[in-house]
Design goal:
The chain has 367 residues and is of the alpha/beta class. Helix content is 48%, strand content 14%. The chain is built from 15 helices and 13 strands. It has a 7-stranded parallel β-sheet with strand order 3-2-1-4-5-6-7, with helices on both faces. A 6-stranded parallel β-sheet has the order 10-9-8-11-12-13, with helices on both faces. 46% of the residues are buried. The structure holds uridine-diphosphate-N-acetylglucosamine. The site of uridine-diphosphate-N-acetylglucosamine has 19 residues, from helix 1, helix 5 and helix 10.
Length: 367
């Protein structure tokens, strides 16, 4: 069988790596890795491939940045001939980025089966581009791999046929578990013994200058008590430079490679973020996480894990962060099936699906 993986942006890479490995271990599997080029800077892409020991992409669509319509359309028009040339049995898409939905649309029109890894997550906030990407991808995909039960419930509520849905657990945790010992060895030298780690890149936080100024002043107030380390996403850096905003005592860093960033999470006193994946990683690690968003598509990180949703209440953030730094924080656990074996479960389900699709095609052919 030929399985084609489509990746494009930073959070895709750690989800694809373990599945590519699990499928490679199966007899008779060939794989085609397509990078859309949505993320292209070396520190947003190449370094992840190296650290995760991923094969180099077979095809790079080199779409680069643009508006949502431009990026999605470019991926679609450049991906279509790749599918026509290789005719894979199944295309696997990951997460909720523009590359995910663009690749899924092309497959649906060509009648090629699609598997969506990280299906069913919902923020119920359609102002988020990722929510649109999730809704469309899940309507069109043939196999839906949910990381948690809330994902299954959302899909059933939207009328997705139960036989398309599989609760497999969180594949990002496969990578995390495997890399954790090395990540701890790679904690960058010279970090303060105690610090708060910050990442912000969502348009809702960084594209509104007034709000960004409020967030930065809160972080600067925190930095008076405890060092604040802030690896800055390119989108955020552009906004900070564009508006010439003061970052005073914050320790701004370049985007971090996977291992170093994971290491820094393990040693952080607390994390403030708007990322989806970091809500999950801190939950697995049991590190207090404050999510600077009004909703999350990963509610299990709140109900079971170590995540707290802050919304736009910066005073609440200050207060709750203070408690966490004093050691007063809710107890948390690791959600079910976040056990390091999601990729194995997914690989087996994909192989079974391809087998049965081929069998049905053979039966139809014989008739
Ligand atoms: C994208 C995803 C988001 C994910 C995030 C992780 C969508 C809709 N959004 O957001 O869900 O959480 O990736 O990082 O798919 N840029 C560079 N170098 C790069 C990539 C981007 O400088 O390698 C800059 C460009 O100015 C670009 C901006 O960052 O315009 C935003 O990049 P884009 O891929 O459009 O969205 P992200 O904000 O990264």
């Amino acid at each position: 069988m030929l399985i084609c993986h489509v990746v494009g942006a930073r959070p895709n890479f750690m989800k694809a790596a373990p599945l590519i490995r699990a499928l490679a271990a199966m007899d008779g599997t060939r794989q085609l890795l397509v990078h859309t080029g949505q993320h292209y800077d070396a520190n947003m892409s190449d370094v992840f491939f190296r650290q995760l020991a991923m094969p180099a992409p077979d095809v790079n669509l080199q779409v680069g940045s643009g508006t949502h319509a431009q990026q999605t359309a470019q991926i679609m028009s450049r991906f279509e001939p790749v599918l026509e040339e290789h005719a894979p049995d199944m295309v696997v898409v990951y997460g909720d980025v523009n590359s995910t939905v663009a690749a899924t649309l092309v497959c649906a029109k060509l009648g090629i089966r699609v598997a969506h890894v990280e299906a069913g997550l919902r923020s119920f906030d359609r102002t988020m581009p990722e929510e649109i990407n999730r809704l469309v991808t899940d309507q069109l995909a043939d196999l839906l791999f949910a990381p948690s039960r809330d994902g299954v419930d959302n899909l059933l509520r939207e009328g997705v046929a139960p036989e398309r849905i599989h609760l497999v657990g969180n594949i990002m945790i496969d990578t995390l578990k495997q890399m954790l010992p090395e990540a701890k060895r790679r904690i960058p030298q010279g970090l303060p013994s105690r610090y708060v780690l910050v990442t912000l890149h969502r348009p809702s936080n960084v594209d509104d200058p007034e709000w960004l100024v409020s967030v930065l002043s809160l972080l600067q107030a925190v930095a008076k008590d405890v060092p604040v380390l802030f690896p800055v996403h390119p989108r955020t850096r552009a906004r900070l430079q564009g508006a010439k905003l003061s970052t005073g005592e914050l320790q701004l860093l370049d985007p971090m490679p996977y291992l170093e960033f994971l290491g820094m999470q393990t040693a952080a006193a607390a994390v403030i973020t708007d990322s989806g994946g970091i809500q999950e990683e801190t939950t697995y690690l049991g590190i207090p996480c404050f999510t600077l968003r009004e909703n999350t598509e990963r509610p299990i990180t709140i109900s079971v894990g170590s995540n707290v949703l802050i919304g736009r209440d910066l005073e609440a953030l200050r207060r709750q962060l203070g408690h966490a730094l004093e050691g007063r924080f809710k107890s948390s656990a690791v959600p079910e099936l976040w056990d390091g074996s999601a990729s194995q479960r997914i690989a087996e389900l994909i192989a079974r699906d391809v087998d049965s699709a081929r069998h049905s095609a053979a039966v139809v052919g014989a008739n």
